[in-house]
Structure formats: structure tokens, C-alpha cells
Design goal:
This protein is α+β, with helices and mostly antiparallel strands. The protein is built from 8 helices and 18 strands. Bound molecules: zinc ion.
Length: 380
């Protein structure tokens, strides 16, 4: 239990309250790695995407990696591999993050100008029940903005009891494009079609990104796994700029379908002996959200002892705060890779975040810890 702090008695003073606004608190001084990570976070969260709809985010990572001088291999499903030759080339270690995110898509068009939506990956009605803004990405690339709402709305019509018992089912959730407000059953569907809306299109929730450089925190949808991707980009940037060569060869892998349970397939190549999944996890299970976590087990599957030990030793070398964690739920690319036939060792390091799969939040420390641990793993 947290220590209770006694409230200070109010200071006896006759000074009148000042009308001046309080002095601005100073921003944290960012390390180059964190600066790079935050820059990529901003850019990536500006790109609508979800599982198997990752072309544009893959374009961003590919372009940026090439700019740094890396050679990029792109597979048919937009997964990316960037191989960095080490001082010793016999051992190939993969650091992998999934490019894909959970999301939504258009399921059905209704006469009244609303659409039914459904999940891509582990997104549930409870995450978006009411009053959430979203954009539908049409064929032309245009984004049509609207509002998500529950069919049992408003409270004035439902009564409190009915409102509190609203079913959390996708069939009760609708999205109404703002352009369809006021449409009738006679003209609603035509209006949807005129806007270019079709079944199967990506629905992009407003990420609600806020980077707080005073308190060193960030909040947004899709931190899972934007953070894993920016960790890899920050490492690549540091190694390229300082012309650093890792101890062993490193494959940076950006996978495509982790949220649908199929991301691990992109990891497999016979030369690779070790694979570290770089992801996010449940922040509420941490003692301190400023730490990163080294996963020991996800569900029933324990990660490889030797590679996990190496990561812990690297975190200690880098003087990074970390917690050994066994998370009950939430798999990663690591065991997906095993399931797909990868024969090497697997481990997982994560930035823990609050409200996983909803609007997520975390600290700079949780992100920087992963960058510094992997840097120490490959370099020290
Ligand atoms: Zn993830």
C-alpha cells in the first residue's frame, strides 16, 4: 500500500492570490534516442493502418531506413527486414516489432446513413461505445470523419437502467459520418455511397496523441506497437549515425499480422538463431511504469532462458530499470514465430502501457529502457 502523505497545513499568509499564471514547468531534456523515438511516434501515429492494411506505415519505415543507408528487404505482405552485419557474422539475432495495429473496418451500410463496424484484432465495443470520433478511409484515400455511438442512445430515451445495461456487442455499435447527420432512410445509403464508403474499408480511430515533455509521458491509441517500431528505428538511427557495428549480426524485423496471431511467420529465416520480440504489455501489472519489462512467459509459453538472461544482463549493464514479468495474457511475435516453425531461442522485452488496446499511456522511461537494453545487448 502506498504511504499516506499528510497534507501540509495551509500557510498563514496575507498575500493576495496573484492573477499571474504560474511559471511554465521546464521540459525534460531529451536524449537523442528519445528525441528520435518521439519524432517517429508522431509520424507513425499520423498514418491510418491496421493488420493487413500496413502498406503506408511500411513505406514510412522503409523510406527512413534507406535514408539511414540500410538495405531493406520487403516481402509481399509488407513485412520488412533490415540486416546489419556484425563483427561476428555466425550469430544472427532478430529484434522484431509488429507494424500492424488493432483496428476497425466497415461491415455494412445502412439505409439511414450509418454503418456497422467490426474489429480487426483485439478491439472490443467497450473500447469505443460512445462519442468516439473516427475516420473511414475511402478508396481514393480520402478520410470521411464521423462519430461512433451505441444504438441504445441517448440516456433520455433509454432511462438509467436501460442505459447501464447496454449490450457490448458490435451489432449495437454504429458509425455515422458527419456528412450523414440528418439523412433519412430514403437517402442515407445513397449519401454513404456518394461519399465513397464501402464494406471492407479501414476505420481509423482518432489516436488522441499527447506527448507531455514536462512530465515525460505519452498517451495515444496504437502505442501497441508503435512503440516497438520506434525503438527499432531509434536504434537503427544511432547505429547508422555513429557507424556502430554490433557484436553479432542483427536483423531488424517489422512484422505484419501479430494482432491476428500470424506475425511470427515473417521472422523465420534459417540463419537466425535468436529472436527478441519488442512490444508493449500490461502497465497495470508493473510496480513502476518508468521501468521496462522483460517477459518470462506469456500465457502458457515460457521464453528461452539463455536469451532472457542475456537481456537482463544487458539491462543491468545499461543501468536500466526493469522488472521480470510473467504476463498471463497477451502473446507476442516470439511465440507466434515458434508456432510457425522458428527453431531458435526467443525472448521478449516490452514497454508497459496502461489501458492496453484502448487509449494507451506510458512514460518515456518505459520506452528508453527498451532502447538502451537492446543497444547494450548488441554493442556492449
Ligand atoms: Zn503488440
Amino acid at each position: 500500500m502506498a504511504t499516506k502523505i499528510k497534507a501540509k497545513p495551509a500557510a498563514k499568509t496575507t498575500v493576495k492570490a496573484s492573477a499571474k499564471t504560474p511559471a511554465k514547468e521546464a521540459k525534460k531534456v531529451l536524449t537523442p534516442a528519445m528525441k528520435s523515438a518521439l519524432g517517429h511516434t508522431r509520424a507513425l501515429l499520423d498514418i491510418p493502418s491496421a493488420t493487413n492494411r500496413i502498406g503506408a506505415v511500411a513505406d514510412y519505415v522503409e523510406k527512413h531506413s534507406k535514408k539511414l543507408g540500410y538495405k531493406v528487404e520487403r516481402q509481399w505482405d509488407d513485412t520488412l527486414r533490415i540486416s546489419v552485419t556484425g563483427k561476428e557474422t555466425k550469430r544472427v539475432v532478430g529484434y522484431g516489432a509488429h507494424l500492424d495495429r488493432i483496428g476497425l473496418m466497415v461491415d455494412e451500410l445502412f439505409d439511414d446513413g450509418t454503418v456497422k463496424i467490426s474489429a480487426i484484432g483485439g478491439l472490443y465495443p467497450g473500447h469505443v461505445m460512445d462519442g468516439v470520433t473516427a475516420k473511414i478511409q475511402t478508396k481514393s484515400g480520402a478520410l470521411v470523419e464521423g462519430l461512433i455511438f451505441h444504438t441504445d442512445t441517448p440516456i433520455h430515451k433509454m432511462g438509467l437502467e436501460g442505459f447501464e445495461k447496454r449490450p457490448q456487442k458490435w451489432k449495437n455499435i454504429r458509425l455515422r459520418p458527419d456528412a450523414c447527420i440528418g439523412c433519412t432512410k430514403k437517402n442515407g445509403k445513397d449519401k454513404l455511397k456518394a461519399l465513397g464508403i464501402q464494406v471492407g474499408q479501414l476505420v481509423w480511430l482518432n489516436p488522441m496523441l499527447n506527448i507531455d515533455e514536462v512530465n515525460g509521458t505519452l498517451r495515444s491509441r496504437w502505442l501497441d506497437n508503435t512503440l516497438g517500431c520506434v525503438v527499432l528505428l531509434a536504434l537503427m538511427e544511432r547505429w547508422a549515425e555513429k557507424k556502430l557495428k554490433p557484436k553479432f549480426s542483427v536483423d531488424f524485423i517489422f512484422s505484419a499480422a501479430e494482432e491476428a496471431g500470424m506475425g511470427g511467420t515473417s521472422v523465420i529465416r534459417p540463419e537466425m538463431s535468436d529472436f527478441v520480440a519488442v512490444d508493449t504489455s500490461v502497465g497495470e501489472e508493473m510496480e513502476d511504469l518508468n521501468n521496462c519489462a522483460i517477459k518470462q512467459k506469456a500465457g502458457r509459453y515460457p521464453y528461452s532462458q539463455k536469451l532472457t538472461d542475456e537481456l537482463e544482463a544487458a539491462a543491468e549493464k545499461a543501468k536500466v530499470g526493469f522488472e521480470r514479468k510473467s504476463f498471463e495474457g497477451g502473446g507476442t511475435d516470439a511465440e507466434q514465430a515458434k508456432g510457425a516453425g522458428f527453431k531458435g531461442q526467443v525472448a521478449c522485452i516490452v514497454s508497459p502501457i496502461y489501458n492496453l488496446h484502448s487509449v494507451e499511456s506510458t512514460t518515456f522511461g518505459a520506452v528508453e529502457g527498451v532502447i538502451e537494453t537492446l543497444h547494450a545487448h548488441a554493442m556492449l
